[in-house]
């Protein structure tokens, strides 16, 4: 019986040459030192991609890429189709994990000097893969065709529109028409499910081919320097001396990590569920505050925090410079030390980039620069600021609400955070300074001069002058003698 | 170990069923915490019919979240509820009061609320006002201002204790003759303040200024006239 | 292809120049290039047809004048003149109409000049505020504060037969603002 089975297997192998294929691919010899926990991120990213392909295909059974109907199918998936919400959640969380693990993979490759001779092309295809992955993430955000997607496209349009000379052509190319509409969605759908996945699979083919052809990077040792003349022989010697077949000798940690990633994605999807969809993409419904998905929050922060005059330059030139730097990296530092222990600048680069990205993302989550559009009617004046106030001061508190001051200014931490909190404003500005600030604006505040009656200004300032803690006196104008000020 | 023998079939079938059931339970879990609830489904703001939500997003800013102390009059004061004319109350929400800090909320006036939503606000805010009105015997909501001279006298009787003899502020009440204050409030708001008071700020209503001696309808109108006379012309 | 006899180990390539095999290889490549171009031209033409742009800027009716009482700023919507049948709601475009005394108007695009988010009008403070990065504009559309590099995009308008018309039909950007601005 067993013998018969073996014969059948052999028959197939004679025709398919699977054993040979295995030896030259999964079974190829890798340095024993590469079977490390640091080397698991590449396969982790690949696993995420596989999961995305499966869940994405499943979603495509229901999803209709039509501007008119996409939202209906999203709602159907989320609330009616059995487990549709779970597939949406898996696809959403899978994309988050894919971008995250890909970034870890990149940082690891960078820190371990794996991009150096002779693996320059491996790095370059990796950079291309990163761009395609981010492209998939952005186009995927558009597939969830809700208000965020619509206005996210609007933001993309506005950035494209800043390109000199060909700006309006780029806008037209991106939107496939004069406005964000049906053909825009079709265009992004084609990118998201045909062009970019096709490109990513082809690139992965090249990436893996290069890994096989040029070998996996040995675990770098401080003091061992890459030289173009000798590296190939050295690597061959390592493989001869301590090479092990990738499967089954070096893959176990990848397997464990992959399983952990799957558990994590399952758990996130099950506990947190899918994102949105947030509102029918009706441009005439403007009670909306668009926010990009997690992995683009840092761009949103950059756009808010840059001084306006640098914005176009940074938004347009920054990505080009960053891309060129990434492509040039393996040629700039082609040889030399690989170990992170001997490459302080590399370590610093990673630490600074990581810090910058996380801080910008954190800022993007809080987005203190966004006004709270409903604060003026929904955020009450705290009672402590009303106790014992005169009728005029109470009117001032009302003017503060009525004129939408609360949309940007908080009282006791409640309200918008675009401008300073006003809870202790009287300890910082005198009556005259308050009036000037309100009337003339400045420092990112619009001038209210034309839009406030004298009585409204008087009431508002009278109220603000009461905003100081009982143990801290209001600030005093030093040009007026103390007696007179009281 | 032999898997497929006829004697074990029954038991294996049972095990298989249990296993399949368990897997279905784990992966077919439509009970997982992340499952979106139909109630969380997005709806446009114009579809909100929940009073608490409407009040919270549209009114709470000025009239306070809990109705205790607010910059503008808390709307849960039973005396005010009984005093106000429901028709005018609705109109004030819809159209606002020009020249004051009460904005218009109706879509037709540039606001965000539909007529149905304004009806929901009115119904809930004035719930129970009918029965209160019968027991309270309030002065009328609307009345022309009375006589300024008599108003000055009435002010001394009922108001000076807190707001000072000249109305410019006393021990517990601020100035009510400040021209800037008077420029920002309507005549009706002054009348409402005299009759209903401001419970949240410690100001009694028309019955409580002098204990056991409620203000008469004329006295209310006179005091209002006296206050108005301080407006900058 | 004819099976090669093992006794003649010639190079299996077409670089032999004048040989018959070489000629056929070149011919094969040649006719494939011709046939390929025959197919590629319409395909490329199809793809590029979507890049061809219809004349921007058409007069679009916003509605009767009495919808815009003097002294108010109201949201108006129009159907974009260039739409596809499956555009649904995305073909409806909002804009802000400021109606002034004396029958004068200003019509602003909804898109913030910073990054295109929808600005909202606040009647009370007479400001347009953007929910994204806090750009603010005065009632006449000029920049008040925040990151926008300019004022709101403004439509050219005209009044005909008691109707307000604006010239538009595309999403305004810094590269292609509306005709008036």
CATH homologous superfamily identity of the largest domain in chain B: Cytochrome c-like domain
Helix fraction bin of chain C:
10-25%
Calculate the terminal CA-CA distance of chain C, rounded to whole Å: 68 Å
Largest interface: A-C, 69 and 57 residues
Identify the CATH class of the largest domain in chain C: Mainly Beta
> Largest sheet of chain C, if any?
6 strands, antiparallel
Return the average pLDDT of chain C rounded to an integer: 87
- What's the story with the biggest beta sheet of chain B? none
Instruction: Please identify, by name, the CATH architecture of the largest domain in chain B.
Output: Orthogonal Bundle
What structural category do the secondary elements of chain B indicate? Answer: mainly alpha
Q: Tell me the helix content of chain B.
A: 40-55%
Number of DSSP helical runs of chain C? 1
What descriptors fit this protein?
heterotrimer, B: 233 residues, Cytochrome Bc1 Complex, Chain D, domain 2, 11 helices, 0% strand, disordered N terminus, C: 181 residues, alpha+beta, 1 helix, elongated
Characterization of the model:
The complex is a heterotrimer of chains A (486), B (233) and C (181). Chain A has 2 domains: 341 residues, Cytochrome Bc1 Complex, Chain C (Up-down Bundle), CATH 1.20.810; 111 residues, Cytochrome Bc1 Complex, Chain D, domain 2. Helices cover 61% and strands 3% of the residues of chain A. Chain A is built from 20 helices and 6 strands. Chain A has a two-stranded antiparallel ribbon. Chain A has a two-stranded antiparallel sheet with strand order 2-4. A two-stranded antiparallel sheet of chain A has the order 5-6. By secondary structure, chain B is an all-alpha fold. The N terminus of chain B is likely disordered. With 181 residues, chain C is α+β, with helices and mostly antiparallel strands. Chain C folds into 2 domains: 39 residues; 111 residues, Rieske Iron-sulfur Protein (3-layer Sandwich), CATH 2.102.10. Chain C is built from 1 helix and 10 strands, in the order αββββββββββ. In chain C, the strands form 2 sheets. A 6-stranded antiparallel β-sheet of chain C has the order 1-10-9-4-3-2, with no helix packed on it. The radius of gyration of chain C is 30 Å and the shape is elongated. Chain C starts with 19 loop residues before the first helix and ends in a 13-residue tail after the last strand. Classes of the chains: A mainly alpha (486), B mainly alpha (233), C alpha+beta (181). Chains in contact: A-B, A-C, B-C. At the A-C interface, helix 7, helix 8, helix 13 and helix 14 of A face strand 3 of C.
